[in-house]
């Protein structure tokens, strides 16, 4: 199937209330441009270097999301233009984003990445850590960031019940924090599990290979 067919196919499956983040990592400018011309304005990349190479070559009204693990020393390279950092997984990183955003006199949207998968390798906060950090934000810390929601990745497994269980943990936390201060974005679901994520309450999905095709090399 062509990129256009893939894209339309995904769009057809998404309720109007669910945001699509088109994950373009490893794919060339030409492919991103093609999807952009189909009307897609929100794209996700997982590596700072790749993003900073692509950014100047693409239309300026693209809303860029960083979705991969971010090292504090690299925040400065994207602070001027990044719309949302979905992969905030430590207070140290949040502090750094806050500091760099202040230099540009702007606010950067962030999602707290929560560890919901069983796998040891996935980055993210434990539930209690996230609660504590969110409370600091509600109390007025981090004035140059806006915590707009939560992000999580389920375990890579065929076991649908396991995936549902993990998404539900994130949805429950989202609903709970939302009582303290309204949140906009619950980002969960990728090419293989986004329909389940939406059933479990996701209002933003990160879809790469189902739009752009398989990536040539494996991604962390
Ligand atoms: C690569 C990636 C995706 C997209 O994965 P696909 O399976 O290609 O849809 C989503 N979220 C994160 C954090 C990723 O790194």
Automatic annotation (TrEMBL):
<dbReference type="InterPro" id="IPR001608">
    <property type="entry name" value="Ala_racemase_N"/>
</dbReference>
<dbReference type="Pfam" id="PF01168">
    <property type="entry name" value="Ala_racemase_N"/>
</dbReference>
<protein>
    <recommendedName>
        <fullName>Pyridoxal phosphate homeostasis protein</fullName>
    </recommendedName>
</protein>
<keyword id="KW-0663">Pyridoxal phosphate</keyword>
<comment type="similarity">
    <text>Belongs to the pyridoxal phosphate-binding protein YggS/PROSC family.</text>
</comment>
<dbReference type="InterPro" id="IPR011078">
    <property type="entry name" value="PyrdxlP_homeostasis"/>
</dbReference>
<feature type="modified residue" description="N6-(pyridoxal phosphate)lysine">
    <location>
        <position position="25"/>
    </location>
</feature>
<dbReference type="InterPro" id="IPR029066">
    <property type="entry name" value="PLP-binding_barrel"/>
</dbReference>
<comment type="function">
    <text>Pyridoxal 5'-phosphate (PLP)-binding protein, which is involved in PLP homeostasis.</text>
</comment>
<feature type="domain" description="Alanine racemase N-terminal">
    <location>
        <begin position="2"/>
        <end position="214"/>
    </location>
</feature>
């Amino acid at each position: 199937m062509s990129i256009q067919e893939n894209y339309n196919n995904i769009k057809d499956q998404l309720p109007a209330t669910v945001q699509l983040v088109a994950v373009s990592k490893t794919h060339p400018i030409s492919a991103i441009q093609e999807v952009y011309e189909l009307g897609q304005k929100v794209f996700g990349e997982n590596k700072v270097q790749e993003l900073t190479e692509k950014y100047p070559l693409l239309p300026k009204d693209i809303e860029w999301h960083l979705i991969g693990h971010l090292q504090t020393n690299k925040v400065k390279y994207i602070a001027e233009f990044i719309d949302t950092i979905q992969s905030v997984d430590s207070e140290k990183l949040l502090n750094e984003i806050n500091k760099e955003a202040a230099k540009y006199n702007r606010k950067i949207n962030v999602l707290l990445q929560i560890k919901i998968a069983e796998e040891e390798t996935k980055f993210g906060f434990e539930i209690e850590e996230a609660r504590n950090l969110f409370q600091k934000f509600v109390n007025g810390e981090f004035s140059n960031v806006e915590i707009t929601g939560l992000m999580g990745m389920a375990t890579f497994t065929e076991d649908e019940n396991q995936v549902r269980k993990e998404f539900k943990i994130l949805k429950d936390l989202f609903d709970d924090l939302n009582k303290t201060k309204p949140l906009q974005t619950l980002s969960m679901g990728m090419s293989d599990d986004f329909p389940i994520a939406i059933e479990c309450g996701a209002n933003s999905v990160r879809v790469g290979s189902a739009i752009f095709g398989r990536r040539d090399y494996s991604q962390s």
